[in-house]
Structures are given as C-alpha cells and as structure tokens.
C-alpha cells in the first residue's frame, strides 16, 4: 500500500480555496498513516536506528516519553502511598502527557516536511498495517477524491445534479407509492371478494330463514284467527254480563240517590236548627261577656282604690311591722329564757333526785349494817 497521498490530476483545475481544503484532507490522511506506522518506526529506531537524524531524534524522544509514561502508570497501579505522593504523581503524569502529545506533533511535522524518507523506509522494510487501519485510510482517500470531484463541479452543474437526484428520488418514491397502492388494492380486492362471498352465503341463509318465517307466520295467523274468534265470543258474553251488572248497579245508584236526597233534606233542617241554636248561644255569650266585662271594670276600680289605700297605709304598716317584730323578738328572748330556766330546773331536779336516791341507799345500807351488828351482840350475851 502506497502510504503517500499523491496529488490527483483534477486538483490542477481547483480554485485556491478548494486546493486549501484538499491539502487539509491530504494532511489529515498523512497524519493517520504516520500514527498507524509509528509503533513500527519506533521499533526500527530502537533496533538499528534510522539514517535521518531529525526523524531519529524525534522518534527517540517519543520513545523515551512513552517508556516514562508506562513506568509511571505501573507505579500508580502498584503503589499505596499518601495523598501528597499521589498528587505529585498526578502532576508528573500530566506533564508527561503534554510532552508526549508534543512529541507526536513533532513526529508528524517531520513526516510532513520529509514524506519521502518515511515512504522509503516503508517500501524498504515492507511495513504492514492492520486491516482496520488500511480500510480507514482507503475510505479517507475515497472521501478526498469525492470532495475534489464535488469541488470541480460548477454551481449550475451541482444544482442540476441535485435536481436530477431529487427527481430520481421523487420518481422512485412515486413508483414505490404506486406499487404499494397496487398491492393494497389487490389485497382490498381479495378482501372484497371474500366479503362478497360471505355476504352471498348470508343472503342465502336469510332467504331460507325468511321462507321459514313466512310459513311460520301463516300458521300463526290461522291460529291467531281461531283464537280471536274464541276471544270475541267470550268477550261478547262477558260484555252482556257486564251490561246486566251495570243495569243493576244503576238501579241501586238511583235508589241510593233518592235515599241520600231525603237524608240531605233532613240534615239541612238539622243544620238550620243548629245554626239558630248557635246564634242564640252566641248572643247569650255576648251578653254574658258584657256583664263580665262590667264586673271586671268594677272590680278593677275597686282594686285600684284598695291599692291606693294600701299605698296610703304603708307608712303605718311599716311602724306596726317594726313594733310587731320587736314584740316577736321579746317573745323569742322570753321563750329562750324560759327554756333555759326549765333546763336548769330539770338539771337541778335530776340532781336532787339522784342525791335523794343516793341518800336513801346509804341510809338503808347503814340501817342494815347496824341491825346485823345488833343481832351478833345478842347472840354473844345468850352464850354467856
């Protein structure tokens, strides 16, 4: 595979802006090619060295940075240091990564300045790249060629091409729509035929049912006519019975109406008599009420006079009441004094009775004692 991107013949007719775009794409393809063969170049430089000094120095610097970065990664995985050491390693790693990126840029710059050197090494050593990388580079080159072709087209040609593409797409869509519509119509037609066949079967079934219903309806009509005749006959007989009952009821109603008229006349006379009695009672009540009203007015007058007399006598009543209260108080005090004297007298009487009883007991006991002593003295004299 030729790694160098050669200039296409069409690029001579490009405008300056289009050439710049083409150069940018070619530069990107070269950088991808360099990144793909970079491991092989590093291995070659480590084993036998490369004649070009600038390229050799750039590769050697890149190799040293890569080794340092790998060593730092292994140390970070195996070490269990403090947070301060981890922070220092992190800073060192960031510095190495920046230097590593710069070294990659240096290698790419050398390749951009001296593409023939790397192409010669690749042709001499027959360096192979992977299938995926080869496919990526091939697709990038195809994309570059397509972009160049697009940039060679004029504005009108580009519009014409876009229009043709749009028309082709539109025709394709219309064809797809027609095909889909035809398929849909075919499916609908099949479904319609199926529905028609089903409807025919339903119609035949309905016709047979209609015939059966007609026969059944005819039999039902005959039976209905027979039933109607029997019902009409029974209805006429029932109507005659009802008419007879109605005549009897009318006769009873007439008799009851006559009787009620008589009772009504009696009740009217009774009501008139009751009205007269009520009128007399009301007149008597009015007279009685007038008499009572006169008596009430007279009583009210007498009551007012008595009230006036009471108000006039109230001062005397208050003096009498005061005197009466004093008399009651004196009586109460006298009664209390009498009760107290009676209580004292009762106590004295009880004390006297108790003293007398005690004295009588004492006298009796003493007399009995003296008598006993006397009897003992007589017995002694007889013994002598």
TrEMBL record:
<dbReference type="InterPro" id="IPR000048">
    <property type="entry name" value="IQ_motif_EF-hand-BS"/>
</dbReference>
<keyword id="KW-0969">Cilium</keyword>
<comment type="subunit">
    <text>Component of the nexin-dynein regulatory complex (N-DRC). Interacts with CFAP52.</text>
</comment>
<dbReference type="InterPro" id="IPR042815">
    <property type="entry name" value="DRC10"/>
</dbReference>
<feature type="coiled-coil region">
    <location>
        <begin position="189"/>
        <end position="350"/>
    </location>
</feature>
<keyword id="KW-0175">Coiled coil</keyword>
<comment type="function">
    <text>Component of the nexin-dynein regulatory complex (N-DRC), a key regulator of ciliary/flagellar motility which maintains the alignment and integrity of the distal axoneme and regulates microtubule sliding in motile axonemes.</text>
</comment>
<keyword id="KW-0206">Cytoskeleton</keyword>
<comment type="similarity">
    <text>Belongs to the DRC10 family.</text>
</comment>
<keyword id="KW-0963">Cytoplasm</keyword>
<dbReference type="Pfam" id="PF00612">
    <property type="entry name" value="IQ"/>
</dbReference>
<protein>
    <recommendedName>
        <fullName>Dynein regulatory complex protein 10</fullName>
    </recommendedName>
</protein>
<keyword id="KW-0282">Flagellum</keyword>
<keyword id="KW-0966">Cell projection</keyword>
